[in-house]
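Example record

One chain of 205 residues, shown exactly as stored in the release files.
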Amino acid sequence: MPTARETLLDAAHAALAARPWHAVRMVDVAATAGVSRQTLYNEFGSKDGLARALVRRAADTYLAGVERALGSAGGTGDRLAATAAWTVRATRASALVRGLLTGCWGEWSPRPGPARRSASAVPAQRRADAGPPTPAELLGQVRDRAVAALDEGRPPHDPAALGMACELALRLALSYALVPPPAGVAGDGAELVRDIVDRLPDVAA
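Predicted structure tokens for this chain:
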């Protein structure tokens, strides 16, 4: 059963589908979640706190998908292709993920404010108040996770080449997410990532 915090975050996320963040009212979020407004403030502290928690959850959801993609079957090219495909899907589907990965926040998204020191009694909110990663930090986190996952059990290779391949796959995925192929042409960059990685010496396996 979802916690009150998750229910409130779901309600706030649903509200964003209907109106820009500045028009989302705390009282409406609480009513949709079926809790009191005081419960909402107890959990997040303020509307800014709710915004930071929404963005933090989006980052965590994206990274969880990265972990699943990196754990999929196949060799290096297959797993990086799966990661690229997930990045494209997540970026196209979520304005929050798109903002996290590009730094471009529209009026419909809660632009994360500066990190703040929180005295909140809610551990999850203290983590959210620490602020979301910058696009460069998030890309670095994904690259480092990819290198760690793909390096496991491999024969000797060039670690720098593997790191470069991981970053290349992610940046290529972002290009597909931000500039989709022409109408009628399917594509998420996965096949191109697989082909490029398979051609790289000291990486393909």
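Notes: The chain has ten helices and no strands.
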